[in-house]
Each structure stands twice: as structure tokens, then as C-alpha cells.
Amino acid sequence: MLTRVDHIGIACTDLNQAIQFHRNAYGFEVCYREINDEQGVDEAMLRINGTDDGHATYLQLLSPTRPNSPVGKFLASRGEGVHHIAFGTPDVDAAAAAFLDRGMRVLFTPPRPAAMGSRATFLHPSECGGVLVELVTHT
Ligand code: CO
């Protein structure tokens, strides 16, 4: 059902500085940028490698556009660092339904449009060992 790591989401206060760090330290380049007004986040996807299902693994750098956004609140309470991990699945609707059947909380039903034309939802960290887990399908 979950076939790979799609991306690791990292919260940062200064997106351009974080992009520069990841380029200089690891050689990762930005392949996509987006401002998501609804979620209050300015984000960049950095491609790491292709995966054997024809997709890829990324780092997702997340910087808040307002302090009361989810990432803004995360930064205020936890500081910079890993925000979530995203597993790739061929069918996010089926994956979300399977977790709901197990009695787990799924944050967005149906899944919402996400970065790079994907659709995604989240599992609550309190039921996932303290980790915010994203489920994502690329279309
Ligand atoms: Co994500």
C-alpha cells in the first residue's frame, strides 16, 4: 500500500537560506516552488533521486507565510527541523480508507491537492509514534 518514501518535510524560518544550505551541503537542487495560501506555507521541493516506480524522492522545505499557519505554529513550539515524512502510494484514496478502517485519524478526507499536482492526506502524529505522516499520490 505504501511503496516508498516520497519526501521528508523540513520546517525552516528562511526558505532561501535553507535552499542555499541544502544546495551547498548536499548538492540538491530546487525542482519546484509554490506558495500555498490556504496552508500559509512557502515551499520548495528538492529532488534527491528517482525511484523504481518512475517517481522520485524529495526534500520539502517549508517556511510559513504567517505565524498562525500550521508550519508557523510548529516553528514556534519546536523550532526548525523535520516536520513530517511522506510515504508514496499508488492510490491515496484507498490508503486513507484503509487507515480509517483501522480506526486511525486521517486529517483530510478526501485527500487534498498538494505539491506538484499530487494529492495527499495526513495521519495524526499521536497515532504514529509522534511523527506527522503524509500519504501522497502523484498524478
Ligand atoms: Co509534504
Structural write-up:
This protein is of the alpha+beta class and 139 residues long. It has one domain: Roll (2,3-Dihydroxybiphenyl 1,2-Dioxygenase, domain 1). It contains three helices and eight strands; from the N terminus they run E-H-E-E-E-H-E-H-E-E-E. Strand 3 and strand 4 form a beta hairpin. The longest helix has 12 residues. Bound molecules: cobalt (II) ion. Cobalt (II) ion binds next to strand 1 and strand 5.
Q: What order do the helices and strands come in, and which of them pair?
A:
Layout: E1 4-11, H1 15-26, E2 29-36, E3 41-50, E4 56-64, H2 70-78, E5 81-88, H3 92-101, E6 112-113, E7 118-123, E8 133-138
Parallel strand pairs: 1-4, 5-8
Antiparallel strand pairs: 1-5, 2-3, 3-4, 6-7, 7-8
The protein binds cobalt (II) ion.
Summarize the structure.
With 139 residues, the chain is an alpha+beta fold.
Question: What descriptive keywords fit this protein?
Answer:
139 residues, alpha+beta, 2,3-Dihydroxybiphenyl 1,2-Dioxygenase, domain 1, eight-stranded mixed sheet, 8 strands, binds cobalt (II) ion
